[in-house]
Specification:
homodimer, alpha/beta, D-Maltodextrin-Binding Protein, domain 2, 11 helices, 11 strands, DNA-binding
DNA sequence: ACCTCCATGTAGGCAACCTACATGCTTAAC
DNA sequence: GTTAAGCATGTAGGTTGCCTACATGGAGGT
C-alpha cells in the first residue's frame, strides 16, 4: 500500500478524469494509468472501471481515496510538529476566494502577515455555493460562503471555520424613496424593479425567500453576477438589489438598508482539505482571517468611515 | 516527507543501530545511511547525531519516529477497511510469547483458527517484564505479562489487551507438610527452602513481597528461569517455588496451593504496535486469544482434569 | 461522418535505490 | 598499547521502476 497510489485515487475522485489529475500534477495520463494498474496488481483488487468516456472508482477505489485523506493528514501533522521546532511558520499559502469576501478580508490579512515568512498566492472565482468545496484541491484555503448553514454545501468532509457572519442589505439609489428608511421588509421591496443574480448564484436564495414571504414574484429587470455591476446598475436607477454589507464599499450615490423579516445573512467560511489544514502556515493564515473577520463584524463602517472612503 | 524515511527513523529508534535495522529489513547499512542523508537534505534538519559507537536521534528524528507510528497506523487502517470488502481475514500473524502463557493459550488459539485463512508463526522468549515491549518490532502480537499493572513496563505506547489474570500459586512436593493446605500465607512459606528466579525475572516481584510482608529473607537454594525446571526441582524435594496456575500442567507429584496475604497474580497481556494492531488478521487473532483466556479463567483445572491430563 | 476527449499500450530515457567493497572512528579486550 | 570487533559512511556500478513521447482505440457530441 503506497501513499502515491492513495493520493492518485483521491485526486481522481476529486478531479474526475486522469487527464485533469495529470495536468494538476505535471504528468501524462499514461503515467497515471500505469500507476493504477500496478496498484491494482499489488492489492489484488480492481480500483477503477470504465464509465462512459472516463473512469469511475470501484468500492475499493473509494476506500483508498478516503484513506488517502487520513494518511496525508497524518503526514501533514508530522510536518507541522517538525516545523514547530524550527521556528516561525513559513512557506506559500494558496488562497482562493469569492471576490466580495476577498475584497473585505485579504487586505487586512496581508497587513497582519507583513512580519511573517508566509507568502500568499491569490486566486478568485465566483461560483455557486456548492462548487467552492472542489476548489480546495487547488488552493490551501478557500474562502467560501453559505446562505443556509455554517458549512457550505459539499464541504462536509473539509475543515471549515466561520470567519464572519455578514448581513445582506438592500442597496437603493441615494435619492430613492426607500433610501431614508432604517430597515426594509419583504413587503417594502417586493414591488420594486430588481437587479438580481442568476439562479444558483450567491444571493438567489434570498430573492426566493422574499418571494416566498410575500407570495409575489420579483420584477427582475436584469440578472448579473458581479457585485460591482450591481452597484453601478442600482446607482444609475435601474432598480434595487442585494449586496453584502461589509464587502460593499461605502458611497454617497447609494445606500445599504438592512432587510428584516427574512433570514438575510451569509456565513463567510474558510475551507481547507484536512491535510492542507494541518500545515502550520495554513493555520496561521486562517487565524489571521478569523482576526480580520472579527474586526469587520465588530466595527461596521460608520458615517465617518464613509466620508473617509469616498473622499480620500 | 516520505513514509520510507519515517519508517526508517522509527526502526532506528526501536532497534538502536543501523546494522540491526538493515538486518531486519534485508538491506545493507550503507543503504540506510544514504536514506538518512537524503531525508536530512530534503527536510533541512539534522535527524541523527553520532553517539559513541552508533547513532542517536535528534529531537527532529524523534518527532519523525513518533509520526511514523501515526502514519503507518493510518495506512494499516486503510488496508483493514479494504480487506473487509474482500472476505475473511487472511495472512500470516507472527506471535511472540513467554513460554508459560504460550503453552496455556496457543493450542486453544490454533483450534479456534482451524477454519480460518490465518497462518500463525510462533516465537517464544523468556524475558524481564520490561523487555517484551521491544519484541513488538519483530512480532505482530507479543504475549507478555505484568506483575504490577495491567500494562507491562515499557508498553505504554502500544495497543494492549488483557487476556487473563492468572494466580501465582505455591508449588510444593506431593508429600510435603504444606501440600494438604487449602491456602498459604507468607508466614507459612518464608521459612522453607526456595527455588527462585533471578532478580528482574517474572516472579521475583512476589518473592520480594513475601520478604517484605514477613521482614525475613527467603532461603534461596537455587535460581532458575525455566518453569519446567522449577517443577522438577520441587518434585525432587529441593524446595518450594512459585508457578502460574493455568500454565502449569497438573501432576500427582506436586501440588499448587494458592498464596494469600500478598498480591500474587499476573496479568497476561497481548501487546501490538498500533500499525500491526490495525490489521484485520491480527485483530481476529487477538479476539481468539481473549476467548481462550476467558475459558481458562472460567474453568480452572479440576481433579478430573488432573486425572485426564496425567493419565491420558 | 467527423472531431474531440479520454484511457491505454509500447519503447526508451533517466533518476533513484540498493549492493559490494573500502575507510575511519569508537570501545572493549588482551 | 596494540588488536579486534562493531558501527557508520563513502564511492562505484548495476538494476528497478517511474515517467515521457507517440500511437491506438473507444465513446460522445455536433
Amino acid at each position: 500500500m503506497e501513499v502515491r497510489h492513495l493520493e492518485l485515487l483521491r485526486d481522481l475522485r476529486d478531479r474526475g478524469t486522469l487527464g485533469a489529475v495529470a495536468a494538476a500534477t505535471y504528468r501524462t495520463p499514461s503515467a497515471l494509468s500505469q500507476q493504477l494498474r500496478t496498484a491494482e496488481k499489488e492489492l489484488g483488487v480492481k480500483l477503477v472501471e470504465p464509465a462512459s468516456r472516463g473512469l469511475r472508482l470501484t468500492w475499493a477505489g473509494e476506500i483508498l481515496a478516503d484513506g488517502a485523506d487520513d494518511v496525508l493528514t497524518a503526514l501533514s501533522r508530522v510536518q507541522a510538529r517538525l516545523d514547530e521546532g524550527t521556528g516561525m511558520p513559513a512557506g506559500t499559502v494558496r488562497i482562493g476566494t469569492l471576490p466580495s469576501a476577498g475584497a473585505a478580508l485579504i487586505p487586512g490579512l496581508l497587513t497582519r502577515l507583513r512580519e511573517s515568512l508566509i507568502r500568499i498566492e491569490l486566486d478568485d472565482f465566483d461560483l455557486a455555493e456548492s462548487d467552492y468545496a472542489a476548489r480546495t484541491a487547488d488552493a490551501d484555503i478557500v474562502i467560501a460562503h453559505s446562505l443556509i448553514a455554517d458549512v457550505p454545501l459539499g464541504a462536509e468532509h473539509l475543515a471549515s471555520r466561520v470567519l464572519l457572519r455578514e448581513p445582506i442589505d438592500v442597496i437603493v439609489p441615494a435619492g430613492h424613496r426607500l433610501a431614508s428608511r432604517a430597515e426594509l421588509t419583504p413587503q417594502d421591496v417586493v414591488g420594486e424593479p430588481w437587479v438580481t443574480v442568476p439562479r444558483g448564484y450567491p444571493f438567489a436564495t434570498i430573492h426566493e425567500r422574499i418571494e416566498a414571504a410575500t407570495g409575489r414574484p420579483l420584477d427582475r429587470v436584469v440578472e448579473v453576477r458581479d457585485n460591482r455591476l450591481v452597484e453601478s446598475l442600482v446607482e444609475q436607477g435601474h432598480g434595487i438589489g442585494l449586496l453584502p454589507r461589509y464587502s460593499t464599499p461605502a458611497s454617497v450615490t447609494y445606500r445599504l438598508v438592512p432587510l428584516t423579516g427574512v433570514q438575510a445573512t451569509r456565513a463567510i467560511v474558510a475551507l481547507a482539505r484536512p491535510d492542507h489544514a494541518a500545515r502550520r502556515a495554513v493555520q496561521a493564515v486562517v487565524e489571521g482571517l478569523v482576526d480580520v473577520g472579527r474586526d469587520l463584524g465588530r466595527a461596521p463602517r460608520s458615517e465617518s468611515n464613509l466620508k473617509a472612503s469616498t473622499l480620500g
